[in-house]
Amino acid sequence: IAGITQAPTSQILAAGRRMTLRCTQDMRHNAMYWYRQDLGLGLRLIHYSNTAGTTGKGEVPDGYSVSRANTDDFPLTLASAVPSQTSVYFCASSPSQGAGEKLFFGSGTQLSVL
Amino acid sequence: GQNIDQPTEMTATEGAIVQINCTYQTSGFNGLFWYQQHAGEAPTFLSYNVLDGLEEKGRFSSFLSRSKGYSYLLLKELQMKDSASYLCAVMDSNYQLIWGAGTKLIIKP
Q: Which residue of A18, A32, A88, B84 is most buried, as measured by CB atoms within 10 A?
C-alpha cells in the first residue's frame, strides 16, 4: 500500500543522546515535511524539503537537522536530545509545495526524552 | 503575527449536526484546509477551500469567507466514528501551512 512509513513508532530517550527518526514515502512526492504536535498547540513545522537535495527551516528548527539525499527518504535527527523535544513527530509529504496541495501524513513517532 | 483560532472542544449528539468554526489572520492566503485526526492517529485530509462559498462532500461541508477571515466545517448526521479532532490550517503567501490547535469533537449517543 502506497504511503508514508515512519520508524520507530515510539521511543524513550535519555537526554543528551542522538536520535534519528526515519521517514520513507513511495508516492514519488517532491515535498516532504517534519512536524511536531504538542497538546494544546497546532502542528508546528520543524523542517521541510521541496525536492531532493534541498531543505529549509520551519517554525521550530533549533535542535533538529534533516537531509534529503533522494526523493523517498527524509530523516530527522536530534543531535543531543533535551526534555522539551518530548512530542509526537509526524512526517508528511505532498506532490509539490503549492496552493491546494494536500498533505499525506505518516503514523507518527511518540518520543519521550528523559 | 499569524494566528488560527478554533474552539478547543465541542460536544454533539449522534445523528445531529455540528458546526466547527475557524478564524484566521495570516500573511497572505493560498487556501484553507480541514483535516480530521482520530486519537493516536495521523491527520487525514477532509477539505480545501480557496474561493468564498460552500464546498459539500457527502456528510461534510466546508465554508469560506476570505473577507471575514472565517471558515466552518459542517458535519451532518453525526456518527460515533466522527469523534475526533478537527484541524484547521491556512496556507500563507509563502505556501507554508499555519495550523490551529484543533477542535476535539465528542459525540454522545
A: A32
Contacts of B30 in chain A (CB under 8 A): 99-100
| Mean pLDDT score, B70-80 | 98
- Cα separation, A64 vs A47, whole angstroms: 8
Contacts of B12 (CB under 8 A, 6+ apart): B18, B75, B78, B105, B106, B107, B108
What are the angstrom distances between the C-alpha of A34 and each of A61, A75, A93, B86?
10, 9, 9, 20
User: How far, in Å, are A12, A24, A91, B21 from residue A8 at the CA level?
Assistant: 10, 12, 12, 35
Q: How far is A84 from chain B (nearest CA, A)?
A: 18
Residues in contact with A108: Cβ distance below 8 Å, sequence separation at least 6, in sequence order: A6, A9, A37, A88, A89, A90, B41, B42
pLDDT digits (tens, 9 = 90+) for A46-58: 999 999 999 999 9
β pairing state of B103-108 and B9-13: parallel
What would the mean pLDDT of B30-43 be, rounded to a whole number?
A: 96
What's the farthest any 2 CA atoms get from each other in chain B? 43
Cross-chain residue pair B101–A40, CB shorter than 8 Å:
yes
d(CA B12, CA B26): 30
Average pLDDT along chain A:
95
> What is the nearest CA distance from A103 to chain B, expressed in angstroms?
7
Other beta carbons within 10 Å of B102: 28
